């Protein structure tokens, strides 16, 4: 069976991890298939512009690494798995597509790291998140020690990672770990709002935020200017101005 169920809603795809019996844990096969889907929506065909990523069933978004598969792996195999995991999560960030994690249930370890590599997070009110690795004698290996502090600050990240504790939706929203608490319709609504906008502008804005956030302010402002310049010659910028003057919704082409 495919590791993901894919549904299409115009320029939005919903990807559901198909592993309810193992709480959507990250196996080697699942990471390999995720990498293929990310490459597909990030390639020359830009028809998919936002992805809502979620897990099958009500119990889990993703219970982290597949610990049963892990138990049979050599140290070398674990390293290969983690390399694949890191590069797949990075490909999500580098994609022009906007990724939204809908955290429908438990998201622990690699499950939280998967959500952290997405652009936005919507969380079910009964779900829980956590980087619980230290409880297993390891540390987050899918970018958690780096992405979490960049998102919520060093102090809050140390609180979560060093204790390994699980947080509910209310605290996750308060910490800025998730953008909002809601259901799958709310997550789909966010995706639909994004794809109404000019495609090149959305991609450039995403990369301006990601690429600039760790530069000094002058370098970051210069980077924003370079990305802004790239919108100037586009048909969509002219269409945006024309539609405004004609008091109608714009029709963007991604050109
Ligand atoms: N890897 C492999 N299998 C997993 C798994 C994981 N990360 N998490 C859960 N499963 C499996 C269980 O072993 C169980 O399999 P079984 O039916 O063959 O016994 C099945 O999924 C259901 O798990 P269960 O714990 O009974 O479900 P639950 O709905 O009560 O709880 C979780 C779900 C996610 C809260 C709980 O399974 C859990 O805490 N898992 C561990 C998560 C974790 O520590 N991840 C960090 C990895 S670094």
What does this structure look like?
This protein has 11 helices and 10 strands. With 255 residues, it is of the alpha/beta class. The chain folds into 2 domains: 4-194, 2-enoyl-CoA Hydratase, Chain A, domain 1 (Alpha-Beta Complex); 197-246, Lyase 2-enoyl-coa Hydratase, Chain  A, domain 2, CATH 1.10.12. A 6-stranded mixed β-sheet has the order 1-2-3-5-7-10, sandwiched between helices. Strands 4-6-8-9 form a 4-stranded mixed β-sheet. Helix 5 (144-152) crosses helix 6. The radius of gyration is 19 Å and the shape is globular. The model has no long low-confidence stretch (mean pLDDT 96). Bound molecules: coenzyme A.
Q: How are the SSEs ordered, and which strands pair?
A:
Blueprint: E1 4-9, E2 12-17, H1 28-42, E3 50-55, E4 60-62, H2 67-71, H3 75-94, E5 98-103, E6 106-108, H4 110-117, E7 120-123, E8 128-130, H5 144-152, H6 154-163, E9 167-168, H7 169-175, E10 180-181, H8 184-195, H9 199-212, H10 217-232, H11 235-245
Parallel strand pairs: 2-3, 3-5, 4-6, 5-7, 6-8, 7-10
Antiparallel strand pairs: 1-2, 8-9
Helix pairs in contact: 1-3, 4-5, 5-6, 9-10
This protein binds coenzyme A.
Residues 22-23, 25, 59-60, 63-68, 106, 108-109, 132-133, 136 line the site of coenzyme A.
Feature tags:
255 residues, alpha/beta, 2-enoyl-CoA Hydratase, Chain A, domain 1, 2 domains, 4-stranded mixed β-sheet, 11 helices, 16% strand, binds coenzyme A
